[in-house]
């Protein structure tokens, strides 16, 4: 996940988990705990991976997750298909584990397509404590032939997995449409994945980021599929 909430290895937050930290030019300057990094706005690295597939109509479908309602930041928002922080000493190759932990998808780094690096800053409050989250994210894509209902979701992190038409999502991110509809699967109270359809999705339902990021990712996914 992006921001304050995603612990390495999934599950509950470990405030003492250590990150490698960097200066404004992305030069390593040491390590800090998760709590220190977010309290003082120290730059650290994360991993993003977006999944997409070709629909039966030949159009690109972009998969994205709905965050658990129990998350302390951005609960119940739509977000990157799978993502997470890099702990101290880790590389992006290590972070690929997030796909297996969150989605049950086992792939290697070589199977992913790099989409570049994205820098973002976010400020807010989590459980009444102010945080400043500064991340340098390595962004990747993976083309799959699987629909959302076929994945195994990590219940602590995800409430569901959805997909929507890429062109529709682009229009949403560009401000050309107020809403798109998505299909997918959501976890019920017993943790069973249940198919859902025609779910309304608005821009405000996504984790707030520079829309240029979303646009760049969606356009890249369309070229890949």
How many structural domains?
1
Oligomeric state: single chain
Mean pLDDT: 92
CATH level 3 topology: Nucleoside Triphosphate Pyrophosphohydrolase
Please give the alpha-carbon distance between the first and last residues: 24 Å
How big a fraction of the residues is strand? 35-45%
Low-confidence stretches: 1-12
Structural class by secondary-structure content: alpha+beta
Domain Nudix hydrolase: 42-219
Organism: Cohnella hashimotonis
InterPro entries: NUDIX_hydrolase-like_dom_sf, NUDIX_hydrolase_dom
Protein name: NUDIX domain-containing protein
What does this 3D model show about the protein?
By secondary structure, this protein is an alpha+beta fold. It has a single domain (3-224), classed as Nucleoside Triphosphate Pyrophosphohydrolase, CATH 3.90.79.10. It has 5 helices and 11 strands, in the order E-E-H-E-E-E-E-H-H-E-E-E-H-E-E-H. The chain has helices spanning 34-40, 92-95, 97-103, 166-173, 211-224; strands at residues 18-22, 28-33, 43-54, 60-67, 78-79, 82-85, 113-126, 129-143, 158-165, 180-187, 193-201. Strands 3, 4, 5, 6, 7, 8, 9, 10 and 11 form a 9-stranded mixed sheet that branches. A two-stranded antiparallel ribbon has the order 1-2. Helix 4 packs antiparallel against helix 5. 37% of the residues are buried. It comes from Cohnella hashimotonis. Residues 42-219 form the Nudix hydrolase domain.
């Amino acid at each position: 996940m992006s921001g304050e909430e995603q612990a390495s290895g999934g599950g509950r937050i470990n405030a003492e988990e250590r990150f490698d930290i960097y200066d404004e030019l992305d030069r390593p300057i040491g390590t800090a705990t998760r709590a220190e990094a977010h309290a003082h706005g120290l730059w650290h690295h994360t991993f993003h991976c977006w999944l997409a597939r070709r629909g039966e109509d030949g159009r690109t479908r972009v998969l994205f997750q709905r965050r658990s309602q129990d998350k302390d930041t951005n609960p119940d928002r739509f977000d990157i298909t799978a993502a997470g922080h890099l702990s101290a000493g880790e590389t992006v190759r290590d972070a690929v584990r997030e796909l297996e932990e969150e989605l049950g998808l086992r792939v290697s780094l070589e199977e992913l397509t790099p989409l570049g690096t994205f820098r973002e800053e976010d400020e807010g409050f989590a459980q009444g404590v102010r945080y400043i989250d500064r991340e340098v994210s390595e962004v990747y894509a993976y083309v799959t032939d699987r629909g959302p209902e076929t994945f195994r979701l990590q219940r602590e992190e995800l409430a569901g997995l959805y997909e929507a038409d890429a062109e529709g999502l682009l229009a949403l991110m560009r401000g050309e449409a107020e809403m798109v509809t998505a299909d997918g699967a959501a976890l019920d109270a017993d943790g069973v994945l249940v198919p859902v359809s025609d779910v309304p999705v608005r821009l405000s339902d996504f984790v707030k980021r520079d829309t240029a990021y979303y646009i760049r990712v969606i356009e890249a996914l369309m070229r890949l599929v």
